[in-house]
Amino acid sequence: MIRFKVNGTVRETDAPPMARLLDVLRVPLGLTGTKEGCGEGECGACSVMLDGVPVNSCLVAVGQCEGREVVTVEGLAHGAELTPLQRAFIEDGGAQCGICTPGMLVAAEALLRRNTSPTDDDVRDAIAGNLCRCTGYQRIVDSIQAAAAAVRAKTSKASKASKAGGETGA
Amino acid sequence: MTSRVDRTVGKNVSRVDGHAKVTGQAVYVDDLTTPGALFGGTVRSAVARGTLRGIRKDPSFDWTGITVVTAADIPGDNVVALIEDDQPLLAKDAIRHVYEPVALVACDDPVRLQQAIAAITLDVEPLPPVLSIEDAEAKKQIIYGKDNVQKRYVIEHELGGKTIDELILACDVVVTGRYAVHHQEQMYIEPQGMVAHWQEAGEGAEAGVGDGVHVTGSLQCPFYVHKAMKRAFALEGDRVHIGQAVTGGGFGGKEEYPSILAAHAALLSKVAGKPVRMIYGRKEDIEATTKRHPARIEITTGCTKAGELVALKVECAMDGGAYVTLTPVVLSRGILHAAGAYKWKHARIHGWAVATNTPPNGAFRGFGAPQTIWAIERHMDRIAEKLGKDPLTLRQQNLLAIGAVTVTGQTLTQSVGVVECIEKAVKSSDYFAKRAAYAKPSPAAGSRTRTRRGIGAAVFMHGAGFTGSGERRLKGKVQVDLEPGGRLRVRSASTDIGQGTETIFRQIAADAAELPFDTIEIETPNTSNVPDSGPTVASRTVMVVGSIVGKGAKMIADRVRASGTGDFATLADALLAREKKVSTLVEYEPPVAVQWNDDTYRGDAYPCYAWACDIAEVEVDLDTFETKVIGFWAAQDIGKAIHPIMCAGQVEGGTLQAIGWALYENLVMKDGHILNARMTNYVIPTSKDAPPFTTFLVEHPFSGGPSGAKGVGELPMDGGAPAIAAAVEQAIGALCNDLPLLPEDLFRAKSKSQVARS
Ligand code: FES
Ligand code: FES
Q1: Is the pLDDT of residue B4 over 80?
Q2: How close is the nearest chain B Cα to the Cα of A123, in Å?
Q3: Cα B706 to chain centroid, rounded
Q4: How confident is the model over A82-106, as a mean pLDDT?
Q5: Rounded to a whole number, what is the distance in Å from the CA of B19 to chain A's nearest CA?
Q6: At what angle do helices B546-562 and B501-513 cross, to 10 degrees?
Q7: Does B649 contact A43 at a Cβ distance shorter than 8 Å?
Q8: What span, in angstroms and rounded, lies between the C-alpha atoms of B297 and B591?
Q9: What's the CA gap between B356 and B135, in Å, rounded?
Q10: Which of B282, B236, B314, B100 is CA-nearest to residue B676?
Q11: How far is A151 from chain B (nearest CA, A)?
Q12: Cβ contact (<8 Å) for B690 and A42?
């Protein structure tokens, strides 16, 4: 039995340790948001976060996940509230057919967690392992930048607010 | 007129399927839950041409629980009904390409399924295959008809009793060129798949589903599948139910092939008595499904010394592959775009498609036009070179315009925005200054930098909607129903495969009915719930189907408003209470002015054209011959952008496919086998390869489209490759007349040109 955390909940599987994480997520765990586009590490449609780092789940054996934490596209939103990235992909043309979108969102989320002021080149580097055949990538880059701006605006507001709060408290 | 609600056309409303797609909730075919379903697989020939003598099942293998079907199990006609009846669903005796399906296998365990497929051997007596256009033309082996020709078309324009050669030779300047383009794989990120469930009469009645065959999958054209299934299973139409799952890209690749996959899954389900899932892996998808037609195009032209184009001769050969599929239509669109966006006094365009023993080629965004536009655009650069003119200036001098006549004799009467497209792209890219700067010879020896830049342009157009009388024959339909609360439900067979149809149809319907955007529902296409609006192809969805969506929505809204005074929802409920069903079925009527003769190929080839100018700037490494696209400007006249962000997304996505076709993608075939049927070695552009795009949506409205909209889907695929080639040529100083332009191709071109020039 392999135990690992998926989207914040501890899950168990009796799949053989060499089973692909992708298959375990999709079939027994029913998390079909993670997609298979190639099965050989090229397309990134199967990207998930493993301990915060994006990986191709088609290349990860589920046995390697014992005791670790996996986040899939289903685990990105905070309840009903979409993340800035999810909102931007809807509004700014980041998703067309949507089959690359779960993987793109995972890769972009990992980027924004370490850098909320990426250059366009940083964005393109972060999603270089995620193929999209629909968009030409321009609107994906724009969506990620829009989300980064939203995150920055929120943090600066929050820090202003906390400063303001501090002053009042003083 | 002041509207009752805020208009949404022209605004970037939220994508209606966006939430499901960003949360992982959208259900694609492989995400469907199908309790008790078997996995289906295919046994394929492995020989390019031969005669099937027998199918052997390894007696030492345990066949319990495994279903195997062959051609003998097909209840109806063993054909994939489309244009010609030449393609069998499963080969019975003749093998015509390496990936020809011969038998199907189903099993409840995917691992055993693969073992079972391996335990089936085919006895095939090989025959010498025909593997290229030239092989087919040599006619040593006849594999189709009497001369291997699947289809031929000729367009003749103002020859006045002379031959085109005479007319060309009478000109000051004659230029001849030969151009070639290669296969292209659609490479939608979601491979093809179908889930089929065969239900005998009575079964499933309590679930509210009719008996017959139910197929749900990744597809563009549910009624193509419906037609093919009726034929294959000898069923009445009301027993065939074809539905669309959320579809992960199509680009033409899911136009005709899904008919085969649906019939395969359904056949296994019928024989096994259980639902069957057939989801292709990437390798099988690349091997078995259709590709863009390779072509060889020879052009000879005559013009004046001042650069006025006079006479055009085009000889275009396309490789149709093993079966006809949609080849005649692809060829037709190809030759109808072969004259480019220019005026010619005289023209003869001759196109033919030949059969080869390679996987059938079929629909791919652009549908023949990218091939011929590649050739004419490269040829315009050859003419410019000969005249010593700037290539874009030569184009500007000869552009079609309102009042001008095309090579089919069509007088353009409206919606020609090409001049504005060129102005916008030129200005934003600084084309002329860069072109002059990059033309300067490289810095003196010794100070040579490793890279050189170039900039190039392409000007082009794309006919929107079906060719000629296509729409008149097709009679696409849309149904709009009134629902409680004053909501409207739009039923059409137009599929959203990523381009945003669901959102855009809502915008069109909402504005036409003057109702809020969120009171419109779009039915997910299923042949049992929607009328046949025609296929989702040919850049026709918004312009053609969209126009009747608006019409139907307005008709229903008008009826509600005419039924009394008061608020819309109340009136609607009262009307529904009285009439039970309030619904309208609207049929598309092409503008009467559109006249076309299928026999002479003369007349209005398309109701209107979308126009564009693409400019590419590249940097080529002169040691490795790698090309980096550093800038791309696309200005495209699409009539009206119903949803500007989605339109720009179409332009950029289509353009990147064209850039991929030119610089990265190369399907390698040997003896009819595809040697690189993987994403690892069939390389499509990544985010790092893609240039930053500067996109201009130019709007010269077309009176027959909703709010003036023309097609946008295919246009962007047409100009990217020739624009890139023009830029690469300037950078490396060697001719690029053949695709692809991989580093090794550029190295060869450069070595050749050095030999030629020394
Ligand atoms: S499915 Fe894992 S990278 Fe393509
Ligand atoms: S949106 Fe279709 S592959 Fe990216």
Answers
A1: no
A2: 9
A3: 22
A4: 98
A5: 7
A6: 40
A7: no
A8: 33
A9: 8
A10: B282
A11: 18
A12: no
Q: ipTM of this model?
A: 0.96
- Chain centre distance of CA B163: 34
Number of H helices, E strands in chain B: 19, 27
Q: Is the same domain home to B270 and B299? A: no
pLDDT of B604 strictly over 50: yes
Domain span at residue B106 reads 33-127+189-249+254-288
Which ligand is located closest to the Cα atom of residue B249? Answer: 2
Domain containing A145 — which CATH number? 1.10.150.120
Ligand 2: which residue has its CA nearest to atom 3? A132
| Exposure class string for B639-652: b at 16+ Cβ within 10 A, else e | bbbbbbbbbbbbbb
Task: Give the C-alpha separation, A94 to B117, whole Å.
Answer: 40
Q: Which residue has the tokens 């007696």?
A: B59
Q: What is the mean pLDDT of chain B?
A: 95
Number of CB atoms found within 10 A of residue B544's CB:
29
Using DSSP, state whether B621 is helix, strand or coil.
Answer: strand
Using the mean position of ligand 1's atoms as its centre, give its distance from the Cα of residue A57 in Å.
Answer: 7
Angstrom distance (rounded) from CA B371 to CA B358: 19
Residue B168 lies in a domain: no
Q: Which of A52, A75, A98 is the last residue of a domain?
A: A75
pLDDT, one tens digit per residue, over B684-707 is 999 999 999 999 999 999 999 999
Give dist(CA B64, CA B576) in Å, integer: 56
What pTM did the predictor assign?
0.96
CB pair distance less than 8 Å for A91 and B12: yes
> Smallest Cα–Cα separation from B335: which of B268, B388, B384, B406?
B406
Contact B189 A131 (CB under 8 A): yes
- Give the dihedral sign, CA B221/B223/B229/B231: negative
Dihedral of the CA atoms B654, B658, B663, B668 (nearest 10)?
110
The tally of domains found in chain A comes to 2
Q: For strands B487-491 and B520-522, give the pairing.
A: parallel
Cβ of A131 within 8 Å of Cβ of B19? The answer is no
Task: Tell me the residue range of the domain where A69 lies.
Answer: 1-75
Whether ligand 2 lies within 6 angstroms of the CB of A93 is answered as: no
B678 Cα–ligand 1 center, Å: 11
What's the one-letter identity of residue B601? Y
Q: Is the predicted pLDDT of residue B659 greater than 50, yes or no?
A: yes
Work out whether the CA dihedral A9, A14, A18, A19 comes out positive or negative.
Answer: negative
DSSP letters, B632-692, are EEEEEE-S--SSHHHHHHHHHHHHHHHHHHHHT----EETTEES--STTTS----TTTSPP
- Indicate which of B23, B502, B652, B694 best probes the interface with A, i.e. most A CBs within 10 Å of its own CB: B23
CA distance B469 to B607: 10
What is the total count of domains within chain B?
3
Q: Which residues of A touch B249 (CB under 8 A)?
A: 96-97, 99, 133-134
CB of A48 within 8 Å of a chain B CB? The answer is no
CB–CB of B663/B741 below 8 Å?
A: yes
- The band of B442, judged by pLDDT with boundaries at 50, 70 and 90, is low
| Same-domain check for residues A158 and A82 | yes
